[in-house]
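Catalogue entry: protein
Contents: sequence, fold tokens
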Amino acid sequence: PMSQSEVSTDNTRDRKRLIVCCDGTWQDGVLTQDRLLYTNTLRLARTITNEDTRSDPPIQQIVFYQSGIGSEGNLYDEYVDATTGGSLADKVEEAYGFIALNYFPGDEIFLFGFSRGAYTARMVAMFIGAIGLLDRRDMDNFARIFIAYQRLAKSDNETGSRRLLRDELYAFTKPDAHGLQRANTPFSIKCVGVFETVGSLGLPDELTLNLKKAKEIFGFPDKVLGGHIKRAYHALALNETRRDFDCAKYERAPEGLSKGQILKQVGCHSDIGGGYRDHDLADIVLIWMAANIQDMLSLDMEYLRSVPSPVAPWGAQKPHNPRTGLSSLFFATQRKLPLSIDNVTNETIHLSVLEQAELPSVLADAIAAGNTPVENLLPLEEEFKVKWIVEREPQDILSSAGRETFYTRLLHHRLTSRYEYINVYDILRS
């Protein structure tokens, strides 16, 4: 139930909640007809009700669902678009703009995302902390602000470029800047919840030969969890081995800790974001997220209970192999596992991981020795676990199989002919 501190009794103005849900690459829940293939981003967006009647007066909850990078247009456009940074920047501006244009002081902001959609959500959160919420007129400057911040993070301290970039940004970062005054609260963002953050373009080098400038620019200026974010939840994929999909973990800072900030980062499986027909493991992660945010957001529990369609006992489904089809083109790496307590990242292991038939031996040993903390289930998670019943046989069909075939053909075309990749922001070519 919602704590008393979370319930509004202010009748002077009906505040609202602005909730942005950013999907992963090639994911568009609006166009997906097979509900087995829905991502956790779409499922979470549909789980959030349009108002929270637990508060007096009820609080309106406005959800903006954003399709993933590369999901627009035809199939060819999907793969071309997914190899550029321009669409990534467009998504950040679109999500930020939705909040900026609809925000009224006192409103609550929530950001959720999967994969590169998680990158979008976290970048939007970072910009709200850095420049607040721009008004309609200042939104004209967002593209240049975005690029200036990325370049500032990567510029050489020994040159004058950092000073020039800071001067360019000063009008929007000075303490009395209008955007910062609009979002002048101890926690301007109520919650950021992400499923596996990809912190780069996340593509094989063979497909990004013409994108050197974009690869130099796009990324996180830093991984510190801003002190303006009240809560952050991050599901991490223990099984991910693609180097270009390495995860950008949050890191806590003294400012947030001094204000009672909450950060949870839990290790799960490679199936974190959904999109597979057999989605047991993704369902467990979705329920984990719902259990952690249900005191802040009103959720449709009837819809949430309709999501699982188990093919195996709770936690026992074998994770899908992330290195099949097009993904076999990516360089391999072993992701750093949480083998000890880390107060900076505050990583734990989800209890469902212990149900897996195979675990990396070093992780199993660390858990057995008590060096790696295992997170206890919350009441909502316990409820789903108790009622978890196998309903059907595994279909074991990867939702991206057709696209992987096309992606391989496109790679062949890329290596045997000259192709110009067009970036949406001309500024990247400067």
